[in-house]
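request received
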Amino acid sequence: MSAEISLTVNGEPRRIAAGASIADLVRSLDLAPAKVAVERNGEIAPRSTLADAALAEGDVLEIVHFVGGGDRLQ
Amino acid sequence: MTDADTWTVAGRNFRSRLIVGTGKYKDFAQNAAAVEASGAEIVTVAVRRVNVSDPKAPMLTDFIDPKTITYLPNTAGCFTADDAIRTLRLAREAGGWDLVKLEVLGEARTLYPDMRETLKATEVLANEGFLPMVYCVDDPIAAKQLEAAGAVAVMPLGAPIGSGLGIQNRVTIRLIVEGAGVPVLVDAGVGTASDAAVAMELGCDGVLMNTAIAEARDPLRMARAMKLAVEAGRDAYLSGRMATRKYADPSSPLAGLI
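response:
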């Protein structure tokens, strides 16, 4: 078993220790899990499950938050 | 009298009939000050990727508190129903609420809504328990179809997004208002205070704007102007304006003229 797995996070390659959860990843990025939403492989990862959701090799994650936005493309 | 004049969308009551965007401001501080000056209780926000390389960058939520101001997540930049639905599912997870603003655009040049995709997305979202306020063309039939599909508010454009051209077709906006069973808010096209007043005089429940305030030379003053214009237009609508006449009609008595 390799010590690290490869992920794609917001379009960029990233590596994390095998066995890490989505919550571990969010915290490793210095983000507050309460302020973001996570999608894994096209499916919403409910906030309540982030700590239990183990990451797998090749997972594609999108981590989003609210930004200023109005009535047109920013 | 006006103090009691509230409006309701999807069971939530609001006093302010002005919804403002949070894009294009110089910085978050100016944005927050403009929201304050506008009196808005709802702001639209976009959903975007976190900047993974700079996670400590200032965040909107640090300046505009989602506990006191209702965040209305939008789908600006989405050109298909699937993209818009995906965005709002994430928004619901990030914010924890169901009231959202749906817009599905048809092309970049005009930013006109793609009504076929918009209708499709409205149905899916309503079935998933979302409360979608829906940006649309100023078409009374399209507005009714959206309402039937589960839109909790219809938001016809007054003019193309970001154009500042004002309400181009007062007839269609009035027809939408007369035919709607849900709130109607003009979304897009407002350029200055009189445009907002016109929307309200036509009987709209509210107005949504971003560029008109953010691109004014003095955004705070324009935010205040819009607040007053929306209130003035609303009062004018409620007061029942005089009829128009083709010719003059003196206000002073003619009897007793010297």
